[in-house]
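Posted in: Structural Biology > Protein-Ligand Complexes

Title: Requesting predicted complex, zinc ion in pocket

I'd be grateful if someone could produce the 3D structure tokens for the following input. Sequence and ligand are given below.
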Amino acid sequence: MERNTSQKQIILATIREMYHPSAEEVYDVLHKTNSTIGRATVFRNVNSLANSGQLIRISIPNAADRFECMTKNHSHFRCDGCGKIIDIDFVPSIPYPETNEGAIYGYSLLFHGLCNACQEKKKSER
Ligand SMILES: [Zn+2]
Ligand SMILES: [Zn+2]
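-- Reply #1 --
Done. Output follows.
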């Protein structure tokens, strides 16, 4: 239990220093400084932190989930060029639809486009 708690703290601190990492990227960073930490342990802890609401999970179609620590409410934009997930200071207000099929509590939304670096790259390729 004690061991798990401190591992979770280390994982949270690592994710806080990163920008929307996948569990794999968290493992890569942790493994460099702490070679005894296992891949399965990192994946299990990251998922458990997300399930308990201590981490935000960003689900990306056809790609690994990304994670981030709690911050103020914001949206995400995925660059179609390099795949980077970028924070945008925008919170849409969409009314939940009425349905007899159940109760809707929320939605997830991912914008996409090209980041500045990829736009520059595209211009110079022309
Ligand atoms: Zn890009
Ligand atoms: Zn974010």
